[in-house]
Amino acid sequence: MNYKKNDTLILKIEDMGKDGEGIGHADGYALFVKGALAGETVRVRIMKIKKQYGFARLLEVTEPSPHRTTPLCPVAAACGGCTLQHMDYAGQLSFKEKKVRDCLVRIGGVDMDKVEFMPILGMETDDAGVAAEPWHYRNKAQFPVRSDEQGNPVTGFFAGHSHRLIPADDCRIQYPLINKTVSLIINFMQTYSIPAYREAEHKGLVRHIYVRRGYHTKQMMVCLVINGTFLPHASELIEMLKEIEGMTSICLNRNTSRTNVVLGPETELLWGSPVIEDTIGGVKYQISPLSFYQVNPIQTEKLYQTVLQFADLQGGETVWDLYCGIGTISLFLASQTPLKKSGRVIGVEIVPEAIENAKANARLNAITNADFYCGAAEDVVSNLTKQGETKADVIVVDPPRKGCDVKLLHTIVQMSPEKIVYVSCDPATLARDVKMLGAEGYEVKKVRAVDMFPQGGHVETVVGLQRKSM
Ligand code: SAH
């Protein structure tokens, strides 16, 4: 390569990487440019050169993409969250669809000509078909709290891959009442001189403000994460928060370790109920602070409907829901007519609080054909099969980003279900696992991406696999 650090050049952006960064070639050498869109011509400065590729900074867009748009949020470029705000929504959706296709082809070796690749489900409408905006959708916030240079408490975001706080109090993808609640808590800290956490010294008190809201029930939960045992002026905080519409649960979570993990193991209820409730597709769910719950309620409904469609239940099946969280997919499927009449669901999840929620949720909805087990799916499922739980017609998996444990994939193959429905939040690990399942006799039949994270680069995918007939 003839260029060196700090050189500027004109670059044609040909493609976009997995986080939405633009990719162009100079002398046949790939350069990654944050903030540049496919199809654009840009002027860049070379920042870093590695053996195979390099990074360049966007200086000017000389020929913009028709999908370029002005970000709504003033800190969009600096904040690590919304990596696609400079792209219009149609552009975001086709970028995500392409990402899923590319991973399945390149990593998964899937022949897409043999697959029904259904159009991505975007957030142009809500679950009832009414027009929706791909903004203000998040039902959960966990904002870090730090002090500014004057010593005042501030909240915002850590800049991408760092612990540098970018102050922001009006997150555009957050439900507005959640932002308002966070601001009120910052005012409370200011009024009563409650110290913010100081990471470098591991001193100070308030580390994070965590807020969750039930979309259908409007119930709100606040959980203050503290580096200590005691919150001064807690009663004043409760008095203020109680006035917020829907406030149901106020908790303290203690996290005194030097860690990036937001929540500590111990939660104390200060006021109200230890859980909030929400509904999805007519099923009611209780949610604890430590339990996973999908963050985009409008799109979750579409995601679960897609799982239901791909599972194609006829009645009488035994369905496994692995990585089940609070049992949302399990109970959603168990409550459908074919399974309600006959059939059952077995859910497995590693977080004890989530499994407690799942069991309570089954009772809450009078669902008697669902059983839940706590532990690592890779261990629990093989143990259950040894104990005689061998019937498996459909296996749903919904693992975290790292994908399924390989031991679990082997167990699933041995259980030989007719169908596997793979729900994934990372197309790369999805494609890796699909390849392994393909080698063991499972064919990809249907694929559909769902946009759970408008304005951000991540994409959710549902894949329907079918056992090849022998
Ligand atoms: N299907 C659920 C949860 C999906 S998120 C929903 O839609 O809400 C993934 C879940 O996997 C989380 O609840 C996480 O706690 C759980 N998990 C992570 N590793 C696990 C493992 N090894 N075994 C079982 N569950 C695991």
Q: Roughly how much helix do the residues carry, as a percent range? A: 10-25%
Our Rg estimate from Cα atoms comes to 24 Å
Helical stretch tally: 10
How confident is the prediction overall: mean pLDDT? 95
Strand residue percentage: 25-35%
Q: What ranges have pLDDT less than 50 throughout 5 or more consecutive residues?
A: none
- Cofactors, ions, other ligands: S-adenosyl-L-homocysteine
Note down, in words, how this protein is organized.
The chain has 470 residues and is an alpha/beta fold. The protein is 25% helix and 31% strand. The strands form four sheets. An eight-stranded mixed β-sheet has the order 6-21-22-20-19-16-17-18, sandwiched between helices. A seven-stranded mixed β-sheet has the order 9-8-7-10-11-12-13, covered by helices on one side. It has a five-stranded mixed beta barrel with strand order 1-2-3-5-4. A hairpin with a 3-residue loop joins strand 4 and strand 5. Helix 1 runs parallel beside helix 10, helix 2 runs antiparallel to helix 3 and helix 8 packs parallel to helix 9. The radius of gyration is 24 Å and the shape is globular. The site of S-adenosyl-L-homocysteine has 18 residues, from helix 5, strand 17 and helix 8.
In short:
It contains ten helices and 22 strands.
Keyword list:
single chain; eight-stranded mixed β-sheet; seven-stranded mixed β-sheet; 10 helices; 22 strands
